[in-house]
Amino acid sequence: MSPPPPLAATLRASPAAPAAPRSVCAAAFHPAPKPVGWRLPSPPALAPSSPQAPPRWLRPGEAVNVAGYTIAGGMLYVGSRLPALAAYRDVEPALIDPGLPARTGPNSRSGEGMGYWPSYSGISPEHRAGYLEWLATGRSDPDAYIGYVFLYFYGLERRALNTDPADKADVEELAQLVAEVRRLQQIYGQNGSFGGYSASFLSICRIQAGDAVGALRATMFGWEIPPDVRLRLGRHASTKVPVPAELAFGWACNLPSAPRRTPATRCEPEFRELFELRYAAVYGQGVVLKNQGPKLKIDYRPASPGFGGSLTLKVPDVRDVSNANASVGEALAALASDCVDSLDAYSRWLGRNAQGDASALAGVALLPKELLHRHGAPALADLRQWLDRYVPAGEPVVAGAAEVLARWQPGGAAKVGKADATALVTFLEKLGIGIEPDVRFGGPAPSPQGQIALFRLEGGGAAPTAEYSGITTLMRFAAAVAGADGVAEAESRFLREHVAGALGLAAGERRRLEANAAWLLTEPPSPAALKKAAAALTAPPRRRGAVYGLRSGR
Q1: Which of 257, 329, 365, 538 has the highest Cβ tally under 10 A?
Q2: What is the reported pTM?
Q3: Which residue from 366, 517, 525, 532 is spatially nearest to 453, judged by alpha carbons?
Q4: Which residues, including other chains, have CB under 8 Å from residue 225's CB and lie 6 or more apart?
Q5: Beta-sheet pairing, 397-400 with 76-78
């Protein structure tokens, strides 16, 4: 489906009592006269030091000097006597009046005491100095007082949504305003209030200018469906066009039942990708919605008090279909929740390895199967090639553990914990490779300085039987004896074949036993480990160990 044309329009203010907030209506996005009754003058130049300069908007890239601060980048209202859009407010809150004093004080940086819904004309001189300094130093200090960010945002909001043709951004400038708010989101979006207001602003701009402001990624975890998402859902319902995955994601993740858990934010790219894959698996090209519901009406609550109330946009020929299709929305939220659950192990790994490589196999191996080959392809291919080259189908191979660990987690810790060792052997098992010692079956975790035995699995990686566990304990004694005086490999092989046959071990267990023996002969157990193992032996294995000692003359 070709994208629908953008709604071209401006918001139109409705009359209201001068002492109370008012609602603002827009029948369509086109320039309309304002009942407020003012037009912004646009003089050719602004004398930066003139306290009585008429108000004007500095376009992106313009510079100005106010109170000794040189502010580059534009996108500010500067001058005096600019009325607010609300009839009951005298001055536009965002207007920087050069005639007002600004001086540095103890609260300039912290913003302490500035209050909610600030206005440049109403804040103290020391707060004006703090705000001007933030503007002059790039508007990007992550530790800046959030009130300064809002005061700047008020001006962007007015310029984007004003209805007066003399003070309204064209489409090109609107795209620049959107880019600036996106930049601010990257720095200050973790603030819940600013994150919410800025997301709503971007959604309204998307409706206002369509593709001219670029595609917007659906925001996550608001408490209502974003306006542009509601509009697109209504358009898809009216044309019976299936809802694409990215739109379904924006719907699902802004419902009250959305999965607001750590993996969704820590692993956001993987979350989005997994949702889209599973959505396609369930719904194919997408779900088709019922075109039922009231006419779509979008309310926008500006951050700036200069608007004096909410703005309302009525969209012709589009219905609000979210309630009529509520069961679909809940099913999508459940699908999103399943995706978050599937990313839990990977998210925990990222939390434990914040400084590590997110593409390392140690982490990628924990991804759900749909994402494994997409995200781990290079590292996985390298490991597969190494295994194919060094681990034949026959005898087990002893190798330095560092060879595998370097491919598993480059630059990893000097000591491998049980959780990471378990993840490693489980992942190798998926590739048809067994490893000894196996931490899942009582073996120690591999040491980067030690040895491991690798072998091809036969019939999967089922847990060994109790009989196998007993014979591996005897093998420790045999390895200790062999390591003590250099017993021949032939004697060691005889022991493995004799005991394996006597216990009737399955082929897969015999293969694992051979690998265990090969590893033990390179790293014989310590006396303390032998004593602990002996205490755990039952009577029959003890007798077999005694027989071995007599036969070998030990």
Answers
A1: 365
A2: 0.68
A3: 517
A4: 233, 250, 251, 254, 255, 322
A5: unpaired
**Structural domain containing residue 510:** 466-551
Q: What is the pLDDT of residues 396-425, one digit of tens each?
A: 899 999 988 888 877 666 688 888 899 889
Question: What is the predicted pLDDT for the residue at 537?
Answer: 57
Lookup result for tokens 């309302």: 312
Question: Domain boundary residue among 155, 188, 215?
Answer: 215
> In the predicted model, what is the mean pLDDT of residues 165-188?
92
- Model pLDDT, residue 325: 96
Number of other residues whose CB lies within 10 A of the CB of residue 430: 11
**Number of structural domains the chain divides into:** 2
Tens-digit pLDDT profile for residues 307-343:
988 888 878 789 999 999 999 999 999 999 999 999 9
Between CA 362 and CA 488 the distance in angstroms is: 38
Q: Is residue 415 part of a domain?
A: no
pLDDT score for 35: 28
Q: What gap in Å lies between CA 443 and CA 401, rounded to an integer?
A: 14
Q: How many CB atoms lie within 10 A of CB 111?
A: 22
**Which two tokens mark 436?**
């000894």
| 527 pLDDT tier (thresholds 50, 70, 90) | low
CA angle 351, 352, 355 (to 5 degrees): 85
Q: Which residues contact 451 (CB under 8 A, 6 or more apart)?
A: 398, 399, 400, 401, 519, 522, 523
Q: Which residues contact 118 (CB under 8 A, 6 or more apart)?
A: 93, 127, 147, 150, 151
Interior angle at CA 543, CA 538 and CA 545, nearest 5: 95
**CA dist., res. 127 & res. 148, Å (int):** 9
CB crowding 384-397: b at 16 or more within 10 Å, else e: eeebeeebeeeebb
What φ, ψ does residue 460 adopt, rounded to 5°? 85, -170
369 Cβ contact list (under 8 Å, min separation 6): none
Q: Given the structure tokens 């827009």, which residue do they identify?
A: 26
Structure tokens at 272: 């989005």
Measured in degrees and rounded to the nearest 5, phi and psi for residue 26 equal -140, 120
488 lies in a domain? Answer: yes
Q: Is 317 exposed, middle or buried (0-12, 13-18, 19+ CB in 10 A)?
A: exposed
* Tens of pLDDT, residues 103-136: 999 999 999 999 889 999 999 999 999 999 999 9
Q: What is the DSSP letter of 48?
A: T
- Indicate whether 501 belongs to any domain: yes
Inside any domain, residue 504: yes
State the amino acid at position 389 in one-letter form.
Answer: R
Determine the 3-state secondary structure of 539 from DSSP: helix
d(CA 436, CA 443): 8
pLDDT band at 243 (very low <50, low <70, confident <90, very high): very high
